Amino acid sequence: MNKRQLKEIVVQQREELKRKDRGLKRENLEEIGRYLKIPHVLIISGVRRSGKSTLLTQIMSEWYDCQFYYLNFEDERLISFSAEEDFDILYQVFLELYGEQKTFFFDEIQNVSGWERFVRRMYERDNKFVITGSNARFLSSELATHLTGRHLMTEMYPFSFREFLRLNKAEPGENFEYIAEERAKISKHLSQYIEDGGFPEYLRYGEKEILHRLFGDIIYRDILVRYGIRETKTFQEIANYLMANVSNTVSYNRLKNIFNLGSVNTVKNYAEYLESSFLIFFVDRFSYSGGV
């Protein structure tokens, strides 16, 4: 990429950042504040649209004012961004625009293969990095290779029930468990939370198409494209089946037979991809023998 193009993207994103709604203050902001006091690279991972980018703006506003560099790699204009060639150009752009700063904020960095080499090099020059990503598997493998012992990770989820109550200005008062009206109010909100979930954008607009689009983006962009899966129809069917059977018992063998797959390993890989994208989570059945 050429310097002029990168400069335009950086400036435009910075201006958009200034206008971005800070949103509801997240519960893990205090934990993150402790992590910012030490030099380690801070990785914030989590499902798409859970509020990671908004959390970055809260961190910037709370602790850094305007003393930082920022780039969101979800920008389609950065699709050809190369770690080997473009990070040094990007750093030159940052210096020309904002002078020397010691903190980098990179959003959705898993889109750039080899990003960890640049981060390692700049980290050793006493720079601080706060990074977000939507794929736990890719992040962990890259960190294990180049940033072992030099990073801290925290996971970001959609709104908790406590945050949901704050969003709806329905936080319980003292001794609410002894007041029938308060208990009824909390119970009503809990039913709504169980039905609607905690994705901030959906709770703001109430349009179910937002959730359908989010599910499709995770399946296509975070899994099918990233892992080069050819059996797209079968994978989507497995994902739909698992989403429709939350809390039920499943086994790799059973899934293999239901979807006529040739290998249990294929099912295991598909399940790992879904879990790495924070779409579903598996709980192993307890056994004294260690089997599941």
Automatic annotation (TrEMBL):
Family matches, as Pfam families: AAA_14, DUF4143
Domain (AAA): residue spans on this chain: 40-165
Positions of the DUF4143 domain: 221-287
Superkingdom per UniProt: Archaea
SUPFAM superfamilies associated with the record: P-loop containing nucleoside triphosphate hydrolases
InterPro entries: AAA_14, DUF4143, P-loop_NTPase
Protein name (database record): AAA domain protein
UniProt organism field: Candidatus Argoarchaeum ethanivorans
Record lineage: Archaea, Methanobacteriati, Methanobacteriota, Stenosarchaea group, Methanomicrobia
